[in-house]
């Protein structure tokens, strides 16, 4: 495998990066082995570099880049749609399709950057329910990997994540998609989806007890403030703790009928606060410490209206990175009034 130094303006999509590229702060912008696409090339060109090493004789055609990831992602959403439809028609759970989606989600684990970017991008889709199931599966899988789970355990975790919200098919659509504030009655109806989901799968032979419990408990909180039973701490299934983190992140960063999406950094901030009581510290730390690095080099808008580049993320305050605005370095841990409101 030979390397070749190449001028930044001669980079083309499909080329493979031979050495990890760092910014001035020592944060990784692009890891070794990454296949470049237009977005990544623009990101590199904004830095003070002249040339980078690429691997000679590797160049994927533009259709090959991300294509396979995007295809499996879209296919999984279609399968999820079919799984939920057959459940809503009382035809039971389609084991084969569930297995297929779980396998496909796990196969995508090598494309971590694609997963994070895909989840960053697909925020305007109408088909929220199906996309949400896949996003939560992908994010739960990543957290499982970051927690060094065995492959068997990850498989069960992904199955639980895929099915976590199936109980929602029994909640009336006008409540589920209601714009504006819910009445107490409506909120109680929505809360029932955890038990509905559990009942729908508890008698299925191909589904383990772990999956059933994770579905039942994915809205429980460490301090007992969750539902349906108000279980606390170690009484909550470990898969449910992971799915909670993935679920909150995807739900809050998506556009919904009743509210605008939040920037990932606002959600990170909320999560850092929630680990003090509601969310599991291990699951949140694994998620935040690992996912944050994918945002280094991204351009963001601050609540002051300024735009700048994320150049450093402090592991202890993932929600408050250092942002370079023109030639000033703004440390959000110090400038407490400033926030990232949008990734641009
Ligand atoms: Fe849920």
Task: Give a structural overview.
This protein is of the alpha+beta class. The chain has 3 domains: 58 residues, Molybdopterin biosynthesis moea protein, domain 2 (Alpha-Beta Complex), CATH 3.90.105; 197 residues, Hypothetical protein af1432, CATH 1.10.3210; 47 residues. The chain is built from 13 helices and 10 strands. The strands form 3 sheets. A 5-stranded antiparallel sheet has the order 9-8-7-6-10. Strands 1-5-2 form a 3-stranded antiparallel sheet, with no helix packed on it. A hairpin with a 4-residue loop joins strand 6 and strand 7. The protein is globular and about 60 Å long. The protein starts with a strand and ends with a strand. Bound molecules: fe (ii) ion.
List the helices and strands and how they pair.
Blueprint (H helix, E strand, L loop, with lengths): L2 E5 L7 E3 L3 E2 L5 E3 L7 H8 L5 E9 L7 H22 L6 H13 L4 H10 L6 H19 L4 H13 L9 H4 L7 H8 L1 H9 L7 H9 L20 H15 L11 H11 L6 H11 L7 E4 L4 E6 L9 E4 L2 E4 L8 E4 L1
Antiparallel strand pairs: 1-5, 2-5, 3-4, 6-7, 6-10, 7-8, 8-9
Helix pairs in contact: 2-3, 2-5, 3-6, 4-5, 5-6, 5-11, 6-10, 9-10, 10-11, 11-12
């Amino acid at each position: 495998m030979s390397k070749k130094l190449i001028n930044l303006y001669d980079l083309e999509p499909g080329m493979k990066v031979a050495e990890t590229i760092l910014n001035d702060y020592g944060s990784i912008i692009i890891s070794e082995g990454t296949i470049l696409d237009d977005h990544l090339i623009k990101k590199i060109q904004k830095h003070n570099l002249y040339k980078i090493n690429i691997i000679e004789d590797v160049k994927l055609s533009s259709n090959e880049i991300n294509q396979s990831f995007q295809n499996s992602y879209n296919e999984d959403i279609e399968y999820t749609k079919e799984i939920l439809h057959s459940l809503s028609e009382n035809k039971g759970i389609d084991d084969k399709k569930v297995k297929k989606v779980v396998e496909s989600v796990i196969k995508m684990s090598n494309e971590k950057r694609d997963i994070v970017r895909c989840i960053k991008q697909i925020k305007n889709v109408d088909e929220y329910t199906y996309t949400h199931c896949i996003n939560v599966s992908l994010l739960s899988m990543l957290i499982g990997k970051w927690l060094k789970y065995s492959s068997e355990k990850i498989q069960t975790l992904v199955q639980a994540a895929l099915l976590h919200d199936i109980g929602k098919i029994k909640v009336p659509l006008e409540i589920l998609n209601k714009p504006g504030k819910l009445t107490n009655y409506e909120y109680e109806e929505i809360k029932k989806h955890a038990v509905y989901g559990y009942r729908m799968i508890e008698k299925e032979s191909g589904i383990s007890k772990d999956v059933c419990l994770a579905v039942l408990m994915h809205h429980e909180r460490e301090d007992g403030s969750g539902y349906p039973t108000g279980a606390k701490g170690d009484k909550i299934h470990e898969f449910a703790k992971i799915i909670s983190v993935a679920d909150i992140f995807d739900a809050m960063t998506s556009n919904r009928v009743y509210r605008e999406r939040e920037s990932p950094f606002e959600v990170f901030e909320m999560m850092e606060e929630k680990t003090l009581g509601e969310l599991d510290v291990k699951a949140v730390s694994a998620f935040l410490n690992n996912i944050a690095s994918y945002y280094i080099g991204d351009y963001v808008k601050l609540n002051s209206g300024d735009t700048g580049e994320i150049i450093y993320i402090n592991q202890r305050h993932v929600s408050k990175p250092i942002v370079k605005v023109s030639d000033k370095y703004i440390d959000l841990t110090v400038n407490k009034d400033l926030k990232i409101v949008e990734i641009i």
